[in-house]
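Chapter review: from sequence to fold.
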Amino acid sequence: MVNAYQRKKDPEHIRKLILENTMILAAEKGVSGVSIQTVAEMAGVTKGGVFHHFPNKKALLEAMLHFVMSQIDAETEKLICADTESYGCFTRAYIEITLNANATAVSRYWDAISMTMLTEPDLNAIWAQWLEKRLSIHADTDQSLQLKILRYAADGVWLTGFAEMKLTEDFIKMKQELISRTYPASSQSFNGL
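The token string follows.
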């Protein structure tokens, strides 16, 4: 580990490192597991170094959420751009990100945002604003009640998977089934759920 006092100053890199480590703690332990001291140790900076960028824990958590949401937004956009079907494109991206079972950055981002929302309801406004903005952008393609139900179902599958702390074949099958129901032809037979 590099001595925090001798490292070349790179405030943007340090800020990002602090936010990434905050995200890791939030994903693993929820908001209560995030302490300034632990974040500082993980980022290889002093506690004062954390306070230099964020005046308190609340500001750190808010900045972490904005950071996470920007990463999720970029991944959502990438998935939407790669989608060949416009109907339900946001919902498919949402399900893909929500139920990303791989140990990727996206799944860590989703875990961090979800754990924060579960353990710190005061910060839900950041998430709600993002979702509202996305739904507004995709009003023509993703406003149907069927697609809304599928997004809620994905949230429920994620929560069940989180509570069980293991991924099962059923988890993967549910993800595939939810995504398959986002296409226009399947919306016709949605009543057969």
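Two observations follow directly from the output. The mean pLDDT is 85. Residues 11-186 form a domain with the Tetracycline Repressor; domain 2 fold (CATH 1.10.357.10).
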